[in-house]
Amino acid sequence: MHGPVTITYHGRPRYVLLAAESWDAEHAIGERDGTHRELEYQFLVEHMDGGLLVIDPELKVTDASSAAALILGRTPPALIGSPITDALPASTHATMLSSLRHVLRSGEQSQFDLALDEESGTRLRIRAFPWVEGVALLVRVSYEGDEEARLAEQTALEKARAAHGRIEVIRLTVRGTVTMVEAEFARMVGLARERILGLRFVDLLAVRDRTVARDAIERVLSGRSEAEAFDARLLCGGAEEIGARVSIAPLASGYAVGGAIVIVTLDPNTETVQ
């Protein structure tokens, strides 16, 4: 009459007895909450940049936004239930399936392109990431001209950086470990490139600089900062140190931070010290 009764078995809670009116009220609240969450989900899906496809572990489409259906020239009901190989263009299915299985197996995100129209150079740029039960795919249209311009800009930037010298680029995972490093940086710190991969970036710095670096990296990777910069000393050849300016910015992965890019600018006026 006054509240749920817990029934125990050998001292451990086993069942809960409650009035039918309370049970009905709880169900009504649960149904209202479920309806509200469904409306929020639909609002988000229909207002995101690009289309959304959701597939199950068997790689069959379980949900499709109207934007995704429009991009693919189908209706949402026609997409739901079909294998992802039927929903997306037929080019490079082997690469796509390999990427999707990797997401299911590892829980990591993946990105790949599929040709949509060879004549116009239109492509689908797809980012796949783990979903509640399967994989979600963000689908966007990419145009060859835009891609060529981006590649040209990237090439020019790389040439300028090489001519400038004393600038190194490193990529970090969401855990702050090194996932990409250039051979020149590895040579400078006196470690084989394979040994640096997987290390925490802060472990490459002098001990006294690690707290500042760790805090800056954590702010960027948690999404609380758009970019951070600080001065530090790199450990080179064991006990030797060299001054550097370090900047870090988040690497967008869908709608979350998927890692970070670190730029290390060596101080030309700093001598290597013991």
UniProtKB/TrEMBL annotation:
PROSITE patterns: PAS. SMART domains: PAS. Residues 37-107, 169-224 form the PAS domain. It comes from the Bacteria. Pfam families: PAS, PAS_9. GO terms for biological process: regulation of DNA-templated transcription. This is PAS domain-containing protein.
